[in-house]
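As described in the Methods, two query proteins were run sequentially through the folding procedure within a single session, without resetting any intermediate state between them. The first query and its resulting structure tokens are shown here.
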Amino acid sequence: VDAPHHAGHRGTLIHAVLEKLVEEGRHKSSDLAAAMLETAAELQNNRPGSANILAYWQARLAAMGEWLEGFEAARRADLRDSFVEVSGRVELPMDGVPFSVTAKADRIDRLQDGRFDIIDYKTGAVPSQKAVRQHLAPQLTLEAAILQHGGFEKIGDGGPTRRLGYVHLTGREPAGKAMEIECDNELTGGVLYMVERLIAGYRQETRPYHVH
């Protein structure tokens, strides 16, 4: 109960703050730094370690908010609406024995032209562009594939993804950094092909499952 707070607590609190801000439309605020601190204060009582984190991280949260103001302002003209913590699913036929791939996206933005941006907030390490393109870090590409197949029920028919974005937030200098990857059919088709091959391999009776 009284264990010291750690990186997991910080990540959980910051994700909750950003989810609430976007859900309420406050990410469009002209003073996002203040909005972040207010939201963190509202949430601190319901999350383990949040009071300690807020006490130590107020300056960092404010710095993140100031950085996010610029990030959000640059996106505003293209943005139609945003969805947070949305669950999706796509079913792969797999030679008559279907396999379901599920995902939960931090944030999906619908753009004015009907395409989408998928955003993942990171307080820890961010995968490299090479890892994403080689399907070694397939989280966002799988989300894009699910979205292309209309698998996010809350969003409706879905559609193509313009960019995959990792937003790395530290509160240090710089307080945040965005890594964006252009998304296309080759990327989304490739990640589904990778998953199909992986599952087909593990369905072979001669292939063991390693227990850790």
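Immediately afterward, the second query was submitted; its sequence and tokens are:
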Amino acid sequence: MNLELRPEQQDVVNAVSAAFRAGHKRVMVSACCGFGKTELATAMLQATADNGKRGAFLADRRALVEQTVQRFDKYGLESGVIMADHHRFAPSKPIQVCSVQTLLRRRWPEANLLFIDEAHVLSDAVRKKLEAKDCYAVGLSATPLTKGLGKYFDVVVNAPTTNQMIERGRLVPLS
């Protein structure tokens, strides 16, 4: 299946790209639940692979690793998985889906672009990786208001709010 981003998702991708071109290496994307943050990552990681570069998507729970792999598969983005005893361990693939807990005990994959899911909860290992500034990084969060995140991210890209997404018919209103 071919991934086509919605206009508001493409706007966020464009804003992240503009932030990178402006010299920022670590960008936080603030987007509500249901916005399609994983689709953003999928599109950008596909472009990374298409350009002969390497990328990684970090998740802090086993279920999120599996959901991400399923989403990547849905759109034809080949990936390896770095998670204990996972049958799709394939470190030579240019895109990796990684369990943060597994990375605590293993070597980090080589990556030009790193996505951090649930970036409002940063482990010490992820903090150290962000401090190194050795690759471009995008944090994804619906709640990026955790004290101290400004130390790890240079700029915030705000997606449309929940109310704006409801007004556009993208989300169902709570009743």
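Residues 15 and 61 are 28 Å apart (CA to CA). We note this only descriptively and draw no conclusion about the first query from it.
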